[in-house]
Amino acid sequence: MSEESQTIIDRAREKFKDPTLLSIDIANYHFSRKSFKVAVTEYLNYLSSHPVQIKMVTDRILLISDDKDSNPVILAILNEKVKLNPVLYGPLLSDYYFKTQQYDLSLAQHLNLGFSTKKDVRRWIEFSNSLRAESQYEKAIYGYEKILSVKNKHITNTVMGQALLGLGNTFEDKIIPNKLAE
């Protein structure tokens, strides 16, 4: 994108008082041109004002990560953003680590995010289930046990049942690995 185009976009963002104006379009343009730094930055810029779009932004950034050249750029930008807003960007960084099979770092991100909300508890259940699906049994067991050990009003009987079922399924998968091949 030319400097002139960027100047026009910057003026429009200022004029309309919307720092995310055209962010998705700019990100898509730069992604198609393999300009990963700008693409990731614009996707995250969009996310900063539209946090309900985390799934879409996560999917786009993880798609970018399929190109191995993009990984150092993505990691650097996400690590900087997590320092600014760990609640918003932490799950995305964890998903990035998970996709790149850096399960210990993904788990560390989840531990940093904690269990303060109902959404956090749901995230832990989904994360533990995903670890089990990836045959990361020890980490999955740790995740389920963590859910069961935390004293939190959001850990309902249903959540405890899901965690216990996940824990049982994990032990079963660990003991009978042939089950997965069928």
**Total DSSP helices:** 11
The separation of the N and C termini measures 51 Å
**Gross geometry:** elongated
Please compute the radius of gyration using only Cα atoms: 19 Å
Nearest-integer average pLDDT = 93
Strand runs, count: 0
Quick one: biggest sheet?
none
List unreliable stretches of 5+ residues: none
What class would the helix/strand composition place it in? mainly alpha
- Percent strand equals under 5%
Order of helices and strands: HHHHHHHHHHH
Helix content: over 70%
Set out the fold topology.
Elements: H1 3-15, H2 23-32, H3 36-49, H4 54-64, H5 71-84, H6 86-99, H7 103-113, H8 118-133, H9 137-149, H10 157-175, H11 178-181
Helix pairs in contact: 2-3, 3-4, 3-5, 4-6, 5-6, 6-7, 8-9, 8-10, 9-10
If you had to describe this structure to a student in words, what would you say it looks like?
- The termini are far apart.
- The chain has eleven helices and no strands.
- Helix 3 (36-49) runs parallel beside helix 5.
- The chain has helices at 3-15, 23-32, 36-49, 54-64, 71-84, 86-99, 103-113, 118-133, 137-149, 157-175, 178-181.
- It is an all-alpha fold and 182 residues long.
Question: Summary?
Answer:
With 182 residues, the chain is mainly alpha-helical. Helices cover 76% and strands 0% of the residues.
